[in-house]
Amino acid sequence: MRSGAKTAIVGGVFLVVAGGVGYGGLNLYNGITGGDTNVGTRSDNAPKTGPVTGDEVTTTAKEFLAAWAAGEPEKAGQLTNDPVTAGPAVAAYRDGASVSEAEITPGTPVGATVPFTVKATITYKGVSKPWTYASELTVVRGQTTGRPLVKWAPSVLHPKLLTAEATVRTGVAETASVKAVDRNGKELTAETYPSLRPILDELRKRYGAKAGGETGIETWIDSGSASVPDSTVLVLSKGKPGTLKTTIDAGVQAAAEKAVKKYGKSSVAAIEPSTGAIRAVANNPATDYNTAFQGAQAPGSTMKIVTAAMMMQNGIATPGSKVECPPDVVSRSTTFQNLKRFSIPNGTLAESFRRSCNTAFIKAISTLSDKGIADTALGDTARDSFGIGQSWAVGVPAADGSVPESAGSETPASYIGQGKITMSALNVASLSATVKNGGFLQPYLVARELDDREFAQADRLSPEVASGLKTMMKAAATASDGTATAAMAGVPTPKGAKTGSAEVDGQTSNSWFTGYSGDLAAAAVVEEGGHGGDAAGPVVAQVLKAG
């Protein structure tokens, strides 16, 4: 795809050989369209309308791929609906990737979409290596011309080019590769643990220079953003990787990877409560975005762990205190109700916790309103006792969780994990870890000594609050009417858990679950998974059993 390269079309395959070696100068337009340069136009010059036809899809795709293969970025750009952007992008790909030879093979169109395979040879300073990948393009009708055109997106050139700023580059790597190992020294690779791919890329970016390795020659996706790590797609010559120890436990990680694959969009994170060390993180699908760490979703009733702590800290109730749990309650002019409008006559806080009674926790607002702290008390407890809302220095990008000051009906909603509250699976796993440990220890993936990171700090839970939360979480995981009991069956003791479900824009609720067993705590979220114990619960249980 260097300028001056020549192309040919053989059996539907576009071949490009640098320097004029190989197939000689065939006329691409004649070869594809039989010399008709008016493809996609009408003789009366009136713009054509309606969906693109099958012939138009095939012809346009072949012409675009041929121009790209020939190293003719301007021609390729003119065959798209955004030539001003596409032409320079194709040129940048040609110049940055160092492709010396390539075949582009179009597949069978599916509607207006054409898949294709690129089989390239990357050559840099005398070092060559094959590179194969698949992408696709879509043909649309031009809004003004009526011509069939390729719908431009950077991902046409490579599926990992997700923004206009991203580019493909070949050269000496900016940082040495790292051999990431788990806490016992076992190597962690993206091939074995797909969810770790974005984490491994980020670890290299942050700590490659400190791990003692030597750089090699690579082809990589330069994200063009300081907040998004680059991604290596081909290694032409290996440097010497430095070894970087992480807190991951390979056995727990393997269980986490397997657990999330049973559901659609799902994430799980696991922490060692006694240290804060992160033992596992997994996402399905495993993409370049680490949802388990960076997600920001309403945590639903798992938030009742914090709300219960707030109630105990402010003298509203203890686990054995009588609290009202009516079928519904009106708070701040909004009606809230329990699942299937159940009630617990003459019940206690512990009963309301293990059965996840919404109204019992919402009714706490009246006492706190009398004290003038109803809108701020939950955020204070989250920050000061659980570290949520502080800045976490995990070692890779991670959301800190947010429990902001609320107003109006957002306040009662926040007491049951709705409103403006957002958390990730890692944040919610930390709630269980804090309860099990009796105090917050900021989760971390690599030792703080690597870069002298400052960890977030929080006050330890009082013995009364810590004991009360453990008692209630144990009951939720073991009592016959506990919402977490079924999912936690078979998980070793001592154990505790809390279920949650969070309503999002009228869709099926997201399923949340968090729990601990021994010295391992975990949390999972399954998007549109329904009740917490139905989907997220089995994910957490499988991870805890591996601890």
Mean pLDDT across residues: 90
Strand content: 15-25%
Number of strands: 18
Q: Helix/strand-derived class?
A: alpha+beta
Largest sheet descriptor = 6 strands, antiparallel
* End-to-end gap: 51 Å
Q: Helix count, per DSSP?
A: 17
Shape: globular
Uncertain residue segments: 1-14, 16-43
Strand order of the largest sheet: 1-2-3-4-5-6
Radius of gyration: 28 Å
Helix content: 25-40%
Topology:
Blueprint (H helix, E strand, L loop, with lengths): L5 E5 L2 E5 L10 H6 L20 H16 L3 H6 L4 H15 L1 E8 L6 E12 L2 E15 L6 E3 L16 E6 L5 E4 L15 H11 L9 E6 L8 E7 L4 E4 L4 H11 L5 E6 L6 E7 L6 H4 L9 H10 L14 E4 L2 E4 L11 H6 L3 H5 L1 H8 L5 H10 L23 H6 L9 H13 L25 H16 L6 H4 L6 E8 L7 E8 L2 E7 L9 H10 L2
Parallel strand pairs: 8-11
Antiparallel strand pairs: 1-2, 2-3, 3-4, 4-5, 5-6, 7-9, 9-10, 12-13, 12-18, 14-15, 16-17, 17-18
